[in-house]
Amino acid sequence: MKQIKSSIILAFCSLFMFVQTAQATGFNPNLVITDNQLEDSSTMDESTIQSFLLARGSLGIYATTDIDGKVKTAAQIIDRVAKKYNINPQFLIALLQKEQGLVEGKITDKRLNWATGYAVCDNCELGHPLVEKYKGFAKQVEAAADRIRNTYLAQIDTAGKTLTGWGPGITKTASGIKITPINKATAALYTYTPHINGNKLLWSVWERWWGEVTQQAEYPDGSLLQANGQNGVWLIQNGQKRPITSMAALISRFDLEKIIAIDESALDNYEQGRAIKYANFSILQGADGTLYLTRSDTRHPFESEEVFKKLGFSPDEIIRAADEDLLQYDLGEKITANAAYPRGALLQNNKTGGVYFVEDGKKSPIWAKEILTSRFKEMNITPVSPEKLEKYETVDPVGFYDGELIGETGKPTIYVVSNGRLRPIPSAEIFLTVGWKWENVVWTNAKALSIHQIDTPITIEDSPVIVAMN
Fold first, then answer.
1. What is the tally of structural domains in the chain?
2. N or C terminus: which one in the chain shows less Cβ crowding within 10 Å?
3. Average pLDDT, stretch 64-82?
4. Model pTM?
């Protein structure tokens, strides 16, 4: 059982002070656009590109010599390059606007010649032979797409980062701010433009033309969520969001370090479930006088007041609860006078060193120290004889709590426990998008992992991309 300590309360208060200062700011420097928004080459065909450009400026009537020596429209060049390199034509159009304002601004020879800003830098001489070879609209579009696909994304796929060190989950500084890209696209864009203002400009163009840049994460059962700028914490369970309505309940049942800060809109995807109001192992009394011991989401009635006293509980612990609060709990088995350790205990075999969690006369073996420390941080271990342990029925071993991030030592796969099963997390992008922290991963042995069956991987769905033609 967890106990409320001053250090935990301070951490709790600090957490909420931090979250209260966070606001939904729109631009997330860690997510400029999604991987799909960079790499989906099917979003627009040539005619759609042409219509889009004509509706916004003079680029729609511009034509020039392509790299094959043939005269083509800007739309034809963009379409060809997008298909060749599997790059989203929307991205190429946004890049033209971000770099030179060519889509909505005035067209000049200089802007066309350096359309995507490729090979252009603060200290570069445009007349230098190594720079001038990229001069021209078609060469610029070609070179930008080629570099992003065949250099930046290729480096991330093989080495986890680009030559300049940008990669998903890797923190670097840009414009004096620490940035941790959550996907390959963002890492590639900071390699192409290593400052925040340029990438924020690309993001703002994208938002204005094609809608919001978001990735909808799947939050598995056991996730603790908190909306930016709000105090409330929610437990995701059985596809519902359950409000945790008291500090005591939060501290006694959950790890504050596991709270994930999210946008408020993400909570709208869940129906509201039962509230979590009381601390674990609370003594509740109903209007009819019945006494209950709470364990997680179950209330166990004491067989009688005499049993309550015999087992060492005190009347000072009793909390009078409304019937509606009691109904938030499932009704469990009665607690009788023969119940051993109704609040649970850790007993250790003083011969073998094996540790068991004993509750109501049943003992569950603990197969790894990581399970012991993650589930029973505040519980003392009592050494007992093998003969005493033999009195208790052996049941299934103790597993990890839902929401725990675990992996086998020496192996790369990370899982999240959900409904008692292990759900693989396929990539660093998904890990970071959900909001998990690397430092919260628990590395354990294969035997401990075997307690849980493998389930389906965690997924992320990109938000719909809407092409605005007006």
1. 4
2. C
3. 97
4. 0.59
